[in-house]
Write a structure and sequence with these properties.
The complex is a heterohexamer, with one copy of chain A (57 residues), two copies of chain B (211 residues), one copy of chain C (249 residues) and two copies of chain D (222 residues). Chain C is 76% helix and 0% strand. With 249 residues, chain C is mainly alpha-helical. The chains are: A mainly alpha (57), B alpha/beta (211), C mainly alpha (249), D mainly alpha (222). Chains in contact: A-C, B-D, B-F, C-D, C-E, D-E, E-F. The interface between E and F is medium-sized, with 25 and 31 residues. Bound molecules: protoporphyrin IX containing FE, adenosine-5'-triphosphate (ATP) (2 copies) and magnesium ion (MG) (2 copies). One adenosine-5'-triphosphate sits between chains F (11-12, 14, 16, 34, 36-42) and B (123, 126, 130-135, 160, 162).
Chain lengths: 57, 211, 249, 222, 222, 211
């Protein structure tokens, strides 16, 4: 089966790739968002620690 | 016997009070002091069980008020900043309904007398909507005259009242205390309650004199 | 009993749950990648072409897993909420809110892929058929939950409100699942009966199952990493957080 | 105990009587929605008869969804709700009372009005009967379920929408069965099955909703 | 002068931003109404296409009618309206400002959303265009006219219904021309005539409504 | 120069006051006395033009306020029972907007200073919703610090304020009077304003002492 055939999906290209595409998109986007959220959380904690350090000084 | 065991309350990112402990026996009045925003209202609402403290507990006769629920509430009256008055109902109706819900239904007659005492003669059957601030306040305070609960929690009860009304309310409070009740009170005005049975509690972080 | 309760509580404290969650994230992300990779390979190269739907049917390999997960995750959320009410452990509320977005994504995917399947099969993107509608409802439930928690500033209130909402919403799950039985609809009935008998070519079935497990692992990984962030945000001024290695790096 | 239930119901009815609007506004809204359609769509009886059940049920659903906002909000603002939370009464009973009154004021008139409006869409007698029955079973369920949403979103920034967003998913089944029953009858095949489902929903919500709402109120009043 | 207008508009937009709900609630309501009908009525495309213009316009009308209650009420309750009456600014300007903001928040999103929803009822492109145009002209008129009713009924017992009662008669022409235009286009014969009428209504209300509302406010505020 | 020519106001079936005439020059403070419901608020709202009197007129610089409309309003500040504060906006935003509408736009900086003076440090950019009563009150009073109108009409401005704040507000009022402004004030609390520039006006029908 040729690559072209494969991507044509027997005429159903739009639908099949439309679904799988969006699915992939979301399931890649979410982890990225999660990563950035974690980064922010860590940054905030770090800031608070620094603040407390200031106060104790 | 009301006990508060190191109570803590945090609002937003400000810790209003923490490690707050005191106990209150019958026949005493607790006067909360503190500048605006010091947490008086918050503390009172916590004592009523309307606000969940972030830490600590409130005990009534040795048992947590959370557990007691209705039994505790039967012993409690709270009069806060919000009048708790329905503008579309007359003073009489407002009073009778709130009493009925408190479990001490009162007769039309009793309601009239209470409002009469509160100096609302001639305004008893106006819709509360048209009353002046002071008059509205008087209607909500009238509950105290017919209610037999042991703890009164009064958040700035004197606001909007004229001098005569303030005098009268103070006498009512005094007699409740003398009769062995407890009163938790906050006000920014002077109170003349016979000292001795009075406990004071200071909240807040501002040095006094600071605006 | 009591001993089991005790170590349950041990894990229910954020400080102990946090590292545990960390380990689960790594484990399940790997699992998810492997399973989904295999699943995709099978769904495109192993699984035979469907005799009446042609290649178009291959959507089933994400549609059904997504649909199932969207329901499954909601049930799990409800489970956590109930635990939260019984033992009021803080972690349960955090888990509930950590699961919601992932669940919402799967609910959306089941709608989207369904729509992209419906167009070729039924000639329309959308019909107001029971199954579809109930899937839409589920999506709304997720959105409602997220919106409610978003609207409340105070953590404690949002936790309790959220838990209550989830438990109320749970009544919809049976409706979704049995909607096909109750109304005769365009939509497929359950191919996998509770009794276990499957009305499907085994290869297709296996592919679907592998994909499902892949999604399942993905969901766990996502939820766990989200819950870690939530813990960090809420416990930000505790000592154990300030002593974490990743913070002091 | 029932004392309290009775007090609340009579209180809310009295209030509704004082500001009649509350009775009419929902009814009026319902009437508007139902009667505007012929205006917007045009008078073909065929079409109208076709869409009638849908229109009626959607209208009823919207009407009760909008009435929700007023269920607890007023009491919340003027502090009477706060006072209710402090009364020595089982809260769910008070909630049930409020919802009952609310339904009597907003739901019932609408139910009674429906058949008259139904004539506008010339529905058959039996269809009308079924409509009456389903509405009579459906609207209380709507009020009960809606109460939970109203309580949860009390005093929140997002009031209005949130309620709809939370409540809608739970409303839709009622809508489907309700409209379904009427359609089924109108098109000959009996709507009994749908009506049973409605009954089930009503009973369930009658049992669970007040408890849920009560819990929600305690959460929101903080 | 325009300073004041600008201040009010930005203030209300800021407020809307703070409680996003207000933006969404109307939009969401609109979406619900439009999408629930297929649920109630059933999926036959033919029927749907037939009733689409009606549904959309009725939905838009209801949405803006419901949004009205929020137009002045909040400011009235917290006393900011009172303060506005006491500012040294021509009141009608402030009113115009409030209505503008109100439309931007409640009307515009709905207009922009309509075409998307139109697809659900598979309307043709040109029908969709006309729908967009008519809504774009109609909804501001609705807000302006509605403002009068809202101002008159401010703080009255009876708010809700009264508004609808007062406003509805004035709304119906807008509805008829609006829906008319779309139908006319959908069924081939152009809707230009209707659209001109809509324009006329819009201009008139733009001139008269703010003055009327301002007067009404002074009366109600006493 | 504010003149009141036999003003009468009837509410429901009660004549609150009638034949009321007085005039108020620059640099004076008019202190309204009267029991609850005696008509103080009503009178003040009439003076602002919010309420139409049943008889009589209010003149500003010899001309009826009805005619003057905006010119009169430019010289007026009214702070009543309702806070006039938007709970969703921060103190800063509330202040700046109300000033902008008063026609005296102020900078962010000025707003911060005003609130600072009112003792709201650290609460300037919280949504007013979460502020305590006293704090909310302070936000609405902050207008007085930046506003340059000649007449201040203050209806029980001291309610919910703590002692320090009351002190401060009184000094603000005093300095406004000294600067030639006019203040119309009602309160049930004691006011310490240097006598001499102070006019008193008694409303109401109750003998004092009566509740
Ligand atoms: C927007 C449209 C659709 C939605 C929202 C939707 C929703 C769902 C849901 C919620 C499930 C899982 C429930 C269950 O497994 O019992 C499901 C399963 C399934 N759907 Fe869809 N679906 C849609 C369109 C379609 C279309 C067009 C087809 C095929 C023509 C389809 C075929 C299936 C199949 C075969 C299953 C598996 C049933 C089973 O194994 O239990 N779906 N769908
Ligand atoms: N979400 C929040 N974020 C930040 N601060 C908050 C929040 N909610 C409440 N606060 C603060 O908590 C305090 C509430 O205090 P409370 O209402 O109990 O004061 P109070 O002692 O009753 O004051 P007053 O004498 O004015 O009535 C205020 O300082 C307020 O600013
Ligand atoms: N529609 C009405 N019917 C009868 N009486 C009315 C009506 N509207 C107002 N009143 C009376 O008019 C008076 C309004 O007084 P106002 O609010 O001016 O009092 P006040 O002096 O400000 O009192 P307070 O010190 O309590 O603020 C009240 O006595 C009220 O009962
Ligand atoms: Mg307070
Ligand atoms: Mg007054």
């Amino acid at each position: 089966m040729s690559v072209a055939e494969f991507f044509d999906m027997g005429g159903y290209a739009l639908y099949v790739w439309g679904s799988f595409g969006v699915c992939a998109l979301l399931m890649i986007a979410e982890p990225l968002l999660l990563r950035s959220r974690r980064r922010n959380a860590l940054r905030r904690v770090a800031r608070i620690i620094r603040m407390n350090a200031e106060d104790t000084k | 016997m009301l006990e508060v065991v190191d109570l803590e309350c945090v609002r937003g990112d400000r810790r209003l009070f923490s490690g707050l402990s005191f106990s209150l026996g019958g026949g005493t009045l607790l006067h909360l002091h503190g500048h605006n925003g010091s947490g008086k209202t918050t503390l009172m609402r916590t004592l009523c069980g309307l606000v969940q403290p972030t830490a600590g507990e409130v005990l009534w006769d040795g048992e947590s008020i959370r557990k007691q629920g209705e039994d505790y509430r039967r012993d409690l009256v709270y009069i806060g900043h919000k009048s708790g008055i329905k503008g579309d109902l007359t003073g009489i109706e407002n009073l009778r309904i709130s009493c009925a819900l408190d479990g001490v239904a009162i007769s039309e007659k009793q309601a009239w007398d209470a409002l009469e005492q509160m100096g609302l003669n001639g305004h008893e059957d106006l819709p509360a909507r048209v009353l002046s601030q002071g008059q509205t306040r008087r209607v909500s305070l009238a509950r105290l005259l017919v209610n037999r609960s042991r703890i009164w929690v009064l958040d700035e009860p004197f606001t909007a009242l004229d001098k005569a009304a303030v005098e009268f309310l103070q006498s009512v409070i005094r007699s409740h205390v003398d009769a062995g009740g407890m009163v938790i009170l906050t006000t920014h005005q002077e109170v003349k309650i016979t000292k001795g049975q009075v406990q004071e509690l200071q909240l807040g972080w501002k040095r006094d004199g600071d605006v | 009993m009591s001993s089991r309760l005790i170590n349950w509580f041990k894990f229910s404290s954020p400080s102990t749950f946090y590292p545990l969650a960390g380990r689960m994230v790594t484990l399940f992300s790997i699992l998810a990648v492997v399973l989904i990779a295999v699943g995709l390979y099978m769904s495109f190269f192993i699984a035979p072409t469907d005799y009446k739907q042609g290649e178009g049917y291959r959507i089933i390999y994400i549609h059904v897993p997504a649909a199932w997960m969207s329901m499954f995750i909601y049930v799990v959320m409800a489970g956590w909420s109930i635990l939260g009410l019984i033992y009021n452990t803080r972690i349960s509320a955090m888990m509930t809110s950590a699961l919601a977005p992932t669940g919402a994504i799967f609910a959306f995917l089941s709608l989207w892929t369904g729509a992209f399947w419906g167009k070729p099969m039924w000639g329309t993107w959308w019909v107001w058929d029971a199954r579809l509608t109930s899937a839409l409802i589920l999506f709304f439930l997720y959105l409602g939950f997220i919106a409610l928690q978003g609207a409340i500033d105070d953590n404690r209130r949002s936790d309790r409100a959220g838990a209550l909402l989830v438990m109320v919403g749970i009544v919809n799950i049976p409706i979704i699942y049995f909607s096909v039985k109750w109304w005769n609809t365009l939509h497929q009935g359950a191919t996998i009966k509770m009794s276990g008998g499957a009305s499907m070519d085994p290869v297709m079935l296996w592919t679907m199952l592998i994909m499902t497990f892949g999604f399942w692992a993905y969901a766990i990984a996502a939820a766990m990493s989200r819950v870690r962030s939530i813990i960090l945000e809420r416990e930000r001024d505790t000592t154990w957080v300030s002593e974490l290695p990743e913070v002091n790096r | 105990m029932f004392e309290a239930f009775y007090t609340i119901v009579s209180r809310d009815l009295l209030l509704a009587l004082r500001r009649r609007s509350d009775i009419f506004s929902t009814l009026f809204f319902f009437v508007i929605v139902v009667s505007l359609f012929p205006l917007g769509i045009g008078p073909e009886m065929a079409t109208l008869r076709l869409i009638a059940p849908g229109v009626f049920w959607v209208a009823a659903l919207l009407a009760s969804m909008l009435a929700l906002e007023r269920l607890f909000a007023a009491d919340f603002d003027d502090g009477t709700l706060e006072q209710m939370l402090l009364t020595p009464q089982p809260l769910f009973l008070l909630v049930l009372g409020k919802i009952t009154a609310h339904w009597l004021v907003t739901g019932l008139p609408l139910v009674l009005m429906a058949p008259l409006l139904g004539l506008q869409y010339d529905l058959g007698i039996d269809a009308l009967q079924v409509m009456l029955v389903t509405l009579l079973m459906g609207t209380p369920a709507l009020s009960l379920i809606g109460g939970i949403g109203a309580a949860l979103t009390l005093g929140l920034r997002g009031g209005g929408v949130l309620v709809s967003l939370l409540v809608l998913p739970l409303y839709i089944p009622v809508l489907i069965f309700g409209a379904g029953a009427v359609e089924a009858t109108a098109s000959g095949l009996g709507g009994a099955g749908h009506i049973y489902m409605l009954g089930a929903i009503l009973v369930m919500s009658l049992v669970l909703a007040p408890l849920a709402s009560a819990a929600a109120l305690r959460i929101s009043a903080e």
